[in-house]
Amino acid sequence: MTAVALSDVSPRGARQRRRALARAALLVAPALTLVIVLIVVPAVLSMGGTFFSEGRFSLVNYREFFGSPLSVQNLWFTIGVTLVSLVLLLGIGLAIALYLRFSHSRLVAAIQILALFPLFVPSIVASFALIRFLGPGGWVPTLLRAVGVTAYQTPYLHASGAVIGLVWQELPMIVLMLMAGLAQVSNRAIEAARDCGAGSATVFVHIIFPTILRSVVVACCIGFLDIIGSFTVPYILGPAAPQMMSIYMQRSFSELHRAATAETQAAVTFAVCVVVGAIYTACVFRDSVDNAELAQ
Amino acid sequence: MANRMERSNTDISAGGISRRLFLKGTAAGAVGSIALGGRSVIAYADAQTINIVSDGDTNVTDWWTNTLKPQFEAANPGYSLNIVITRADGGNDVVAERVVAAKKTDTDPKVDYFEEFDPRRVPGSAESGAFMALDESKIPNLALTSKAGRETPYIIPYRGSQVLLAYDSAKVPNVPKTWPDLVAWIKANPGQFIYGRPDKGGSGKNFVVRAIHEANGRDPSLFRVDNFNADDAKKRLAPAWAILNDLQPSLYDKGAYPAGNNPTLQLYASGTVAMVSAWSDMALQGISQGVLPPTTKLVQLTDLGFCGGYAWSSIPSMTSKTDGVYKLADFMLTPEIQTRMIADFGAFPGIEWKHLPPDLEAKYKDVIADSVPSFPDGGDWTAALNDGWYSNVATTLARG
To answer: Are the C-beta atoms of B83 and B65 separated by less than 8 Å?
Structure first.
């Protein structure tokens, strides 16, 4: 509706456009105010504070962060765990979403419930359940031992433990987003391609994937931000060192009482997230512009 | 010694709500509410309400709400307890700051009793007069507490716990009782021992503290709230890191440190390791609930025990309900309630063992230490310990 008005250049159109903009501004004002007052202002103040030391502008906080092998290692570890989890999530999520979209099996409902189940499990419960499942003396090693496999190395308290936990936690969201994307794939296009003799791989590469590309990017961005900010799962399942940035920040802040250090760690993490956030925003923005063009 | 995170009996895992205790509590609660229903509304309105704040873990607050409250109210008609849970690490510190502020402006802080708060945690709070100095004339049963627990006149030592070794007697026939023996045992049984991360729970922290004590002539008095100095700390802690690094290859999974008291006990309970460091109350509760193997035994080192300490209650001086809070404090220190506390959640008593039934003392003789060493809680020493452990022991970086 507003899209029509926006492209009209006549005087009447201009008036309509202003009114539409005013209405839009009014609609977003409460939420925007809340975000500015409660998130943007404190974040800017906190970030700004990291560039000062003893009342003067200084990069000493950042020199300290990047000068400490421990901080840098934690940062790379965080990014590494996040990316590995994301790749696994995308692989598993895509397989499940494709199955749910195209299968006619009676198992679909059951698989869907199973795939969405983690959505309703608090991360602390999931973490402890995974210890019971994968940890030493858990189900997996016990079953493996029963069939004669003794070389099991538990992922509990290793980076792999954090990755497994995070993949389990994030899976429903990724599946939901990919399924939303897959819903846009036209059956007619697929049937047409099949009539021309295209195989499954060709259909996926040339028809399905281009259609859901945006969903994939959005799912990756949201998944990335979720995982990089996760605390409980890597805290319980991950190793003591290196640590995810969230745990490192908490430790610096409440155990070591170094607020400036924790803020700097947060600022560096935020800088990483901003890149991903920018990709996400660009994607969503292009999406709405495209929709606006379609609406004309 | 009252860092909630550290001495929390269930810490983040929060898995420790005793079902037995809970059921018992619910039953007690039900009886309590029937009794309440029978009282006239006027009598209820007349009851003097004592506002208590507790940031203790679930086992503590459950016990206060479901066990202590009905008992106290039955024994002291006309009083009613309002237990406010401020749980989060240091939740009561924030309330205490409010109490100090209320004292300055001469207003009612609306808090009458701290289940657990040591005024030393908020510097200046005792000097400001915000907390009441207590003695036997106000709380007669204070006479039953040990001198060691009454470090200042503002605190009531009402329960305690200490870190010790929990081990499976089926796997460990000759348990080590000194630090050198423990080190030898760990090295002789690779993968069978683990302690938790020091910043995530006191069972791990106090194992690290014991190594620090070992490296410094077993003299806990070298580490006090008021004697921290960064250079000195570095010198004193470095040999402890050497001790712990030396142990690391022989620990479970070559040093896979669990994230807290409960995850550490869980590794033990699953039979993965044969020995861990643990809080006495958590281990005793685990044994009585059958969560830990029945062959579990507890032992304290004899050359120098692991650290432990008391949970101290304190009373804001501005409270208008002095009679009620004195009664409550006195009630807490009666041998009956203390016995109940030991049985229900494995706490060490705040009063001396000699005032308790002799069979109880006999039952716990292995875990009762002659002295309970301590290490400055919170503050600079603990920060140096945590930071040092992460950068020297846990790290996978080349150590410099």
So the answer is: yes
Query: Given CB atoms, is A195 within the 8 Å cutoff of chain B?
Result: no
A254 touches chain B (CB under 8 A): yes
Task: Output helix, strand, coil percentages for chain A, rounded to the nearest 5.
Answer: 80, 0, 20
Distance CA B93, CA B95 (A): 5
B181 exposure class (CB count in 10 Å sphere: 0-12, 13-18, 19+): middle
Q: Do the Cβ atoms of B387 and A256 come within 8 Å?
A: yes
Q: Do B179 and B146 contact (CB within 8 A), yes or no?
A: no
Chain A stretch 222-241, residues whose beta carbon is closer than 8 A to a beta carbon of chain B? 232, 235-236, 239-241
Q: Distance between CA atoms of B256 and A181, rounded to whole angstroms? A: 41
Are B270 and A136 an interchain contact pair (Cβ–Cβ within 8 Å)?
yes
The answer to whether B2 touches B309, Cβ cutoff 8 Å, is yes
Q: Are the Cβ atoms of A240 and B199 closer than 8 angstroms?
A: no
> pLDDT tens for residues A106-131?
899 999 999 999 999 999 999 999 99
Tell me if chain A has a CB within 8 Å of the CB of B228. Answer: no
What is the band of A254 on the pLDDT scale with cuts at 50, 70, 90? confident
Q: Which two tokens stand for residue B251?
A: 């620990």
Rounded Cα–Cα distance for residues A53 and A46 (Å): 13
Q: Does residue B58 belong to the interface with chain A, where contact is any CB pair within 8 Å?
A: no
Contact B208, B179 (CB under 8 A): no
**What is the predicted ipTM?**
0.81
Q: How many CB pairs under 8 A join A and B?
A: 67
Secondary structure class of A252 (helix, strand, coil):
helix
Which letter does DSSP use for residue A172 in this model? H
**What does the pLDDT look like over B70-96, one tens digit per residue?**
999 999 999 999 999 987 666 788 899
CA–CA dist B389, B198 (Å, integer): 8
Best of A255, A256, A261, A265 to disrupt the B interface by mutation (most B CBs within 10 Å)? A255
**Helices (H), ranges, chain B:** 4-7, 19-38, 41-46, 58-63, 69-75, 91-105, 179-188, 202-215, 230-247, 261-269, 280-289, 322-332, 335-345, 358-363, 379-389
Among all chains, which residue has been given the structure tokens 């861990």? B276
| Residues facing residue B22 across a β-bridge | none
Structure-block tokens of residue A57: 């502008």
The pLDDT, as a whole number, for residue A177 is 95
CA A250 to chain CA centroid, nearest Å: 21
pTM of the entire predicted model = 0.79
Partner-chain contact A236 B267, CB within 8 Å: no
Whether the per-residue pLDDT at B225 is higher than 80: the answer is no
Q: Cα separation of B85 and B333, whole Å?
A: 21
Q: C-alpha angle A179/A181/A183, rounded to 5°?
A: 70
Q: Using the structure block, give the residue that is written with the tokens 């970086």.
A: B397
